[in-house]
Amino acid sequence: MLTPLPDHLLLLRHAQALQAQPGQADRDRALSPSGLLQCEQLRQHFLQHTDLAPQVVLCSTARRARETLLHTVPQWLSHSKYEASIYAATPDILLPWLFTYQGQRLLLIGHNPGLEQLIDLLTDHSPAVPMRPASLCHLQIQHPQPGGAIYVSSWTF
After folding, report:
1. pTM above 0.90, yes or no
2. What are the backbone angles phi and psi of residue 156, rounded to the nearest 5°?
């Protein structure tokens, strides 16, 4: 039996991060000044599009992803969950997380190439959606299978 996916899925790539310092782990990179500006633009977008407000936020534990959430929508921290497996995740790691939130609007804050690969899988590669830093993609789930999502819209900040 197939398990339904969330009704609406919002995929957000973290905002622009600083380059890693010598000896610094990639997952410990902070947001850059331009990344903080992107967060402000994302915050304004979510304030203007209240219909995008998720019921659940699932966020990578990487510093830049956590800071993107904190600086974009701090009011959603109370219904946010942090998951280490989202960092460097492929669709086969991300899909089981989506099954957990059937019938809900889910915001997933993560990384590339996993987000682009997940969009390709769910939309059957139509359209191709580049996920640069601070990119947001909205999908409507029609069927719980690859190719079962409809691309609604995307934005890059």
Report:
1. yes
2. -130, 135
